[in-house]
Each structure stands twice: as structure tokens, then as C-alpha cells.
Structures
1.
Amino acid sequence: MKEKIITRAAEMFLKYGFKSITMDDIANDMGISKKTIYKYFINKEVLIAESTQSVHQHVIATIAEIGSSGYNPVEENFQIRNIFEGIFQAADASPLYQLKKHYPEIYQQVIDREEHECFQYMRHNIEKGIAQGYYRSDVDIENSMRFYWTLIMRINETTMFEKDAKVLELAALIYHTRAIGTPKGVAELEKQLAINT
């Protein structure tokens, strides 16, 4: 039952907002008593923390699966972007924006987890791109990762609506790829843009 509550709560938080969804809403939606929820979660903040952890684990597992699927590095970034769009497609407000505004401690926990995992992925993606000729051999890997991470985080921390964040995230991905791409990488970028936009 605990996992079912986490899964449904995560869906509702992402769709309707962390602040607006109450324990009563979750209980009514699931057809259970609020007492059942409190049996597993002492308060809403604990449920939010466990829900965001669950989403994080799903995202990281999906990124790992994409990373081992044989995509070229530019295509890989677009595949991951599509996954994120699928997860957050129902959200009106940016989940990170909501967390930072209403639950800053949970937000910081999320960022700490995401930064470590995302840096590992980005480093692997850039190294693979250099090896395969999609990214320039003289790319400063560490700074490229940090620049791109900073762009994405800034967008999600300060953009209220998820639809606006998606537009800016695509612009950041284009900017990042053009900044480190070889002609081969830029050609692949154009191909992916034609397919995905």
C-alpha cells in the first residue's frame, strides 16, 4: 500500500502542484482513508520527499536505459528530453519551481541528488560525443557540464509554467550542442530538431 500511495501522490503532485494537493485529496482519489496514509507518512512533507525520491529513481533508471541503447550522444539527449516531457506532460507549473517556493528543504535534497547523477550522465555523454566525433576534441568537459547544468537549473527554478520551461530547455539544449558540437554534431542536432519539434 505504501508504494501505491507514493506512486499516486507523485502523479498528483506533478499534475496539480505540491502545494495544492492535500492528504485528503490523495485519500479521496485512492478511495482510502486519510488515516491509512498517515499510517505510512507522518505528514505531507515526508510524503512529498518520498514521492520526489521515487520520481528521481524512475528518471535515473530511464536515463541509464537510454544510455545503453546505442543512440549517438546528440540523439541520446533528445531521447532523455522526450522522457522528461512524458513524465511532466500533465504539469501546469514547473515542479522544481513549486518545490523551491513551497518546500525549500525538500527542493535542496532533490537538487543534491540530481546534480550528482546528472553530472555522471553529462560527463559520459560528452566523452562519448568526443570519441564518436560529434563533439569537439578540445571541449572543456567539466565546464561544459557546469554551464549546461546551470542553464537547466536556472530555467526550472525561475520559470513558473512547465510549458515555458520546456521551450527554454530546448533552447538550452540547442545552445549546449552548438557550443561543443563538430559539424557532424551540428548536423545531427538539425536532424533531431526536424524529428522532435
2.
Amino acid sequence: MAYAPDWFARYPAIRRRVEVAFWVGVLALQAAFNTLVAWVDLPRVAAWQPVVWEVSSALATGLLIPAIVVFERGVPLRWETLRTALPLHLVASVVFCVLHVAGMVLLRQAAYALVGARYGFGDWPLQLAYEYLKDVRSYALIVAALMSYRFLMLRLTGEAKLLDAPEPAPGGADAAPLPAPRPARFLVRKLRREFLVAASDIEWVQAQGNYVGLHVNGHDYLLRSTFTEFLQQLDPERFVRVHRSHAVNLDHVAEIEPLDSGDARLTMRDGSTVPCSRRHRDAIGQRGRVSPGSAAAAR
């Protein structure tokens, strides 16, 4: 098997911090650069005002980036969905602009009030149109960065796909249709190499937008499918849904830890943990596949 570099194996543990640090760095550099430009272009303006303008804009943008991440994940821009996805993103860019402007104006008004001054945004319709010309570019750059980042992660993490379905058995048109066979293996592409992953080796599955993440032997592979559709292709005696976005292979569950909320935390044999909601918790015990020690922990 071909795996990603050693540094990438440790990346998931710090991934969220790296992503946050990236956007903080980008927005901080943009704010600093725009502040310097304003100081040069507007020498008669008090030095603190451009700082307030740019920092407020950067903060408002930063607060909206998580929402853009969620929206872009649910409405990805791909060739086959471009006709429906592009108009939705245009609408989203308008919403982004309105929220961005409202947020930065509130922050500026608060900052000006602290020094005993008053901030005026000007003619709202005219200024909003002007801001949209800038915000639509910012929105497009953020979406492009997210798409590029996903592409890079797919290349490093690996992307799985179903093997081609077998040819149908010979028979007449009146023959009863046979149920679709469940895939025993998946083809995984990673770093320009391909290998097979057995379905029984999948430890748990997580919904990730239009993909599902397959966790196998400490590695994650993405497969383009909806969560519900993919679960229908797995053995229901082995795989069980434990959360709205997670399913586990019961053969790989090591421990069930009940939580005060009524939910549970599943510890897998590789040490990873998976959330389990209370409405799905009973399904694990009913299957009878978890070890007696684990079942006792659940009680």
C-alpha cells in the first residue's frame, strides 16, 4: 500500500488548528496591507481610523468563513452541478456581502464610540453596491481556496470508489431482478497509486458533505456518495448507524462509554472514538456483536 508522507499521518490531529491559523494569517496580512495603503492614500485621516476599518472588515469576514465552508460543502461547484450550484453561490455572495457589511459597521460604530467619535457608513444602497463589488471577489477567492484545499487533501488522503459492478447473469427479460451485490472491496487512489480496501476492514464511516469518509487502519479515504446511499451498500449485520453522520463496523468496536446526556462514546480497536446518539445506542446492544466487557460498559 502507498501511504501519505509521515508528516501527513500526524496532520489530522492538528488539522483544525492549521486551518484556523491559515485564515487568521490571510486576513491579518490583508488588513495590514490595506491599512498601509489607506495611510498613504489618506494622509489627513487619523491613523487609527484605517486600522479600525480594516480590522473590522477582517473580523466580520473571519466570522463568516465557517458558514461559507458549510455551504460550499453542501453545494459544491462541479461541472455536473454547475448550472444549479452557480446561481446558489451568487445568491450566497449577496448574503455574504450584507452580513459582512452589517458586521463591520457594527464593529466600527463600537470602536468609534470608545474614542467619543461617531461612524457614518454613508448612503446605504450606494455603499452596499460598492462593497458588493469587493465582497463578490472575496467570496469567490474563499470558495476557490476551499476547493483547492479539498483537491489537495484528496490527493494526499486518498479517494476511494466502488469497483465496476459485475455483468448481469444471463436470463430473459422476464427473469426476476437479482438484488445488487454488496461490494466486498473498494478501489483507493492515493499519491498516483491504487490499491484495494476490503469492506470488512472499514472501521467506521463519516458523512462529509457529498462524500463519505472511510476510516481504515488509521487512514481516511473519501468516497463520493451520500451517507445514506453508501450505508445501503454495506452489510447491515456488520455496519450500524450510531449517529446522524457516523456508522461503525461492530467488529471493530472495543468499548461503549455512556455519557450523562444519554448519548455514548464508542472507542474503536485502533483507539479512535466515534460519537453515538441515544436514539442509535440501543441498536448496538441488540446486534450482540460487541464483547461482553463492552456491553457491561454500556450498562
